Amino acid sequence: MPVGNKRLRTLYGMGAKRGTIHRYTWWRWGLGIALTVGTALLPLTGTLRLDLWRGRCMWLGEPVGLVEASKAFAFPFLAVNIAIIVASRFLGRWLCGFVCPIGNMNRLAEWFRWKGRKGWRRYVESLPVFAACLLLSAITFSFWVDWRVFVEGSTMAVWVAGSFLGGMTLGFFGIVQGLGMRFCRELCPSGVYFAVLGPDTRTGVEFSHPETCTDCHACENTCPVDLMPREMAEPKHRAGMGFYPDELTNFANCLRCGDCVVVCEDTTARHGTPSALSMGVLSPAGRGAGSEQASASQE
């Protein structure tokens, strides 16, 4: 299974030899930090907060009732979900590869696991990951409960709020440390939703330069969802795992994380040749077998 030590050795080991941060990592963390900060500012600035403790909800800096705040929240929530549906249908699972906070925390945990795999560091590698889970839980908590509950609330209110915050933190931490990328590969309900929406898209991973391929299998060892990146457009596809239906195409299962492209670039760079794999808008050849042949194979 690539989700484990083989993936760590391939992806992060080759990255250490590269000595620079890959552009996909810059994009991933840049988007993640920007979205995290922007999301955290919504309840902190009073732009939107639904207070389930005393009903002191906020909308655009003004105090409103719970019903009014819920109505105000409904339209942007619906608009965002419509945008996600359209994007997933025509572009694929880019949200999984570059935006999902759980996916980014899984990668953070992988990196610390790689760096702390020896000596005393293996005992503290989980602390930054726990801190990230706590931060994500605190941001989620801020949308639903006023933090003043811990100062002004009754003993019962403090206990319930603390249990809510602690339960979220431990839940996120358990997913990241206990399941890691297996959660993305088998269990994520949002991933299943996005995959079903976009079985055949016009973007993804393409075997664009087969003549430069060294047949090292690094791309397959790195893929977090057990795909064969060089055969994305083929009618055969990975059997469903966990909640994922068996009939989903390779393009539907692909997270668009670009890990296979990263290791391919690292490999071919040593020979001074173009990467055999690329990610972006697919050429007609790159998606030719994916749609018609996949449908025919299912029949």
Topology (elements, then pairings):
Elements lengths: L4 H14 L4 H22 L3 E2 L7 E3 L2 E3 L1 H26 L2 H5 L2 H15 L10 H19 L4 H4 L2 H25 L1 H7 L1 H9 L5 E4 L11 H5 L27 H4 L5 H11 L8 E4 L2 H15 L1
Antiparallel strand pairs: 1-2, 2-3, 4-5
Helix pairs in contact: 1-5, 1-13, 2-6, 5-6, 5-8, 6-8
Q: Can you describe what's shown?
A:
With 299 residues, this protein is mainly alpha-helical. The chain has two domains: 18-191, no CATH class; 200-298, no CATH class. The protein contains 14 helices and five strands. The strands form two sheets. It has a three-stranded antiparallel beta sheet with strand order 1-2-3. The chain has a two-stranded antiparallel ribbon with strand order 4-5. The longest helix has 26 residues, at 66-91. The protein is globular and about 65 Å long. The model is unreliable at 289-299 (pLDDT under 50).
What brief labels describe this structure?
299 residues; mainly alpha; 2 domains; 3-stranded antiparallel β-sheet; two-stranded antiparallel sheet; 5 strands; globular; disordered C terminus
Estimated share of beta-strand residues: 5-15%
Sheet of most strands: 3 strands, antiparallel
What is the spatial order of strands in the main beta sheet? 1-2-3
How would you sum up the global shape? globular
DSSP, total strands = 5
Order of helices and strands: HHEEEHHHHHHHHEHHHEH
Distance between the termini: 29 Å
Uncertain segments of ≥5 residues (pLDDT<50)?
289-299
Mean pLDDT: 87
The helix/strand class is mainly alpha
